[in-house]
Amino acid sequence: MLEPFFREKMAPLSLRLALGGLCVYHGYLKIMAAGGTTWYPGMPTGWQVFISWAEFTAGLAILVGFRCRLAAGLALAATVATLWWWQGWNLFRLPIRSLEQPLLLVIVALAILFLGAGEFSLDGWKGAKLSPVRRTGRT
Fold this sequence. Notes:
Layout: H1 3-31, H2 45-64, H3 68-87, H4 100-115, H5 122-130, H6 132-136
Helix pairs in contact: 1-2, 1-4, 2-3, 3-4
């Protein structure tokens, strides 16, 4: 009885809160470094601005569940791009303990990308509002 509720509603919500919160926090910290231009001096300024603002806005969208799959893909791309920029091919020689946080972000972003936002989101509310089953009352 409660299993579908937790699987279909609470699981996507908890994944969204975790990933969205982390993306907003990390993006905010990067933006506070002169608008996102000085958080990593070795990286070109344009990439720094793109990654910091992409991470922040994707995090906000994930938190509220607006275009969640697109935002999760953007967060995934920002995480992978940043990790690749910092490590390059050395990424495959790093110990797993140094990759725990980025791998966790990648896995959660993939889960949201595949699951979607769930019903407790703007996407879920809009989908329920426009659903033919809800509109006509027929199953």
